[in-house]
């Protein structure tokens, strides 16, 4: 008897896992993946608002702009106490044999912790734990500078990791898994470049572009959602 053909099912890029109902529920049950999905909707809404506010549909543009802000606030609930997970990275830093890169990894952990705590601090007022006006008016601005410094550190760290992955993938006998890790490392590097462009706008630098901010945020959201979805399905 001829074998029945299996129905086609979409698969997650750089992963052999099919996206069926069970996989979709597993992805959405992860707080990190759900938060990143909200980030996609946030910046997609902001992009729609950017276009509409410059056309004749300004009322609709204001709706999408408000939706983007609400989604941003919703994401803050998921990100509270996120700084704690970075302490797990200390083990990888300790095992690093290159002393220079090891110091960079420790710096990366420190930058992540400071940036996340500063964001949590602003979230206390944003989500209503603190009354409006409790924090200094420029608290979020200073927190954004922490994010800019973090983006620079992450770019340096992920560039080194991407170069290492490229070197392993350049070998003739490189496996599919090694090639995938190279692509993932390159995507991660591009994500932090996008974070830097986004930070320029958040830090109110004169050369920053709102459209570049929106597109960078959307790209970073797509890359992050993909990364965490793969982690969940492994």
UniProtKB/TrEMBL annotation:
Q: Name one Pfam family in it.
A: PEX11
GO cellular component terms, semicolon-separated: peroxisomal membrane
For this UniProt record, give its keywords in alphabetical order, as a comma-separated list: Membrane, Peroxisome, Peroxisome biogenesis
Major subcellular site: membrane
- Stored InterPro entries: PEX11 (IPR008733)
**Highest taxon above the source species:** Eukaryota
Tell me the GO BP annotations in alphabetical order: peroxisome fission
Q: Where in the cell is it found?
A: Peroxisome membrane
List where the protein spans the membrane. none
Protein name as annotated: Peroxisomal biogenesis factor 11
